[in-house]
Specification:
- The chain is of the alpha+beta class.
- The chain has one domain: Nuclear Transport Factor 2, Chain: A (Roll).
- A four-stranded antiparallel β-sheet has the order 1-2-3-4.
- A hairpin with a 5-residue loop joins strand 3 and strand 4.
- The two termini are 26 Å apart.
């Protein structure tokens, strides 16, 4: 729980327009600076691989980044969503995706999960747009990182 006094103190660091992430947790699990550097590099490499697969219009590789069983935090919908992605990509001659990362952090209280916050700028032959996005990545039973939620 955050007291009013504590919230007033952190308010100076929070920008509503930029949707500054605020992590609330029962306890903090500290890691060493080297562990932080290693984890951040791993997370950023995963996100970059996901972005590159999208730009390459390699739909199967792109879809492989998503957790089928745990899609949408286990609430389903993967098959319909994946079919839509395949159909959309058929109409593309090029895709450019630019990400402005705003934050990457481990998800408190969850084993092998991290969250990425970014602004996504998308351009293709028939669509362009910008959106703020969150991706929740979780390591699956085979040790592979998968996106379990994106919104």
């Amino acid at each position: 729980m955050v007291s009013n006094e504590d919230f007033e103190h952190i308010q100076q660091f929070v920008n509503v327009d930029q949707q500054t992430p605020v992590v609330l947790a029962e306890q903090i699990e500290w890691i060493t600076p080297d562990e932080l550097i290693e984890a951040r590099a791993e997370y950023l490499a995963l996100i970059e691989d996901w972005r590159q697969s999208w730009e390459a219009l390699d739909t199967q590789r792109y879809l492989d980044f998503y957790a089928q069983e745990q899609f949408n935090f286990g609430r389903g919908g993967y098959d319909r969503w994946a079919k839509q992605k395949v159909n959309v990509n058929r109409g593309k001659t090029f895709v450019q995706v630019q990400l402005d990362l705003r934050g990457v952090f481990r998800y408190p209280g969850e084993k092998d999960m991290f969250v990425a916050h970014f602004t996504q700028r998308y351009l293709s032959n028939n669509y362009s747009g910008e959106t703020n996005k969150q991706q929740y990545w979780q390591r699956d039973n085979n040790g592979r990182w998968r996106i379990v939620f994106e919104g």
